Amino acid sequence: MATVLKVFEKWKEFLAERVSQAERAGMSEETVSKLAFQIGEFLADKVDPKNEQERVLKELWDVGNEEERRTIAKLMVKLVDQA
Fold first, then answer.
1. pLDDT tens-digit profile of 46-68?
2. 72 and 61 Cβ atoms separated by less than 8 Å
3. What is the pTM assigned to this prediction?
4. What is the CATH number of the domain that holds 69?
5. Which listed residue, of 6, 12, 44, 47, carries a Cα 20 to 30 Å from 61's Cα?
6. Residue 3 C-alpha from the chain's centroid
7. What is the number of structural domains in the chain?
């Protein structure tokens, strides 16, 4: 379980760094959210979840409509932005 949590923490760190880079580049919060949505779409289509957290996110993504997926993307940005 500890390894799974480390992997998820690494993923959050990666996302946090990308969000930080986008913000330093002057991208608006809305643009960052749109990018997060696009990344979420790509991951849901192309990447098999590697742990429980990723599987839960994928399952939530899969059952959500576009508006709900955009909310998930915004929440993930908010999650890593607070770290």
1. 878 888 888 898 899 999 999 99
2. yes
3. 0.75
4. 1.10.760.20
5. 6
6. 19
7. 1
